[in-house]
Design brief:
Layout: E1 5-14, E2 17-27, E3 32-36, H1 43-51, E4 58-63, E5 66-69, H2 81-86, H3 93-99, H4 115-129, E6 133-137, H5 145-160, E7 164-168, E8 178-181
Helix pairs in contact: 3-4, 4-5
């Protein structure tokens, strides 16, 4: 598969409601797709579908290895940040800590992180995974201006290194993104 994400003829029904149908999504190396739309239009569901957590009602999804950042932190709250991230990380752990300026918090238990620090830790987990496909659901929630800048730089570097990003957000994302509006 040359694409990092390929969804063909996708339809998704949740709770008896059709969220989208006949949707094609394709991301190759260096691509970024920003999914927008009103609440309940299927943005988060599309991210979960791409992650393999949901099955399409029709169509099929093929993807490369992916890392997901959604409403779940997915870090052991009792471990230090460095140890919790190490569970998910390959050799990119130090680089991920640096990218999100978390080095000074490396020995702090995850449970003591502020909302913004926890969000940056979650994004560092995605970065540290080494996965070529990043799936980000509302990645700006909880981030201050500095955290948004860190995320922007991490995404740009990931894309320039051949990665791709699928992000669902109500907020504008900086950089060069294709856009997909659901529920329009």
């Amino acid at each position: 598969m040359s694409a990092l994400l390929c969804g063909e003829g996708l339809a998704l029904v949740r709770g008896g409601r059709l969220l989208f149908e006949e949707l094609d999504v394709r991301l190759a190396a260096g691509d970024a797709l920003h999914v927008t739309g009103p609440n309940g239009s299927g943005k988060s569901s599309l991210i979960r579908l791409a992650a393999g957590l949901l099955k399409p009602s029709t169509g099929r999804v093929m993807r490369a290895d992916a890392a997901l950042a959604d409403e779940g932190l997915a870090l052991d709250r009792e471990l230090s940040l460095a140890r919790a991230l190490a569970f998910w990380a390959g050799p990119q752990l130090a680089q991920a800590l640096t990218a999100f300026e978390l080095e000074e918090l490396a020995e702090v238990p995850v449970r003591l992180l502020s909302t913004g620090q926890a969000k940056r830790a979650q994004l560092a987990r995605v970065h540290a995974s080494g996965a070529p496909l990043w799936l980000l659901d509302e990645p700006l929630n909880g981030l201050d201006r500095k955290g948004v800048g860190e995320l922007d730089r991490a995404i740009a570097a990931h894309r320039s290194n051949g990665g791709a990003v699928l992000a669902a957000s109500h907020m504008p994302l900086t950089g060069d993104w294709r856009s997909l509006e659901l529920g329009a």
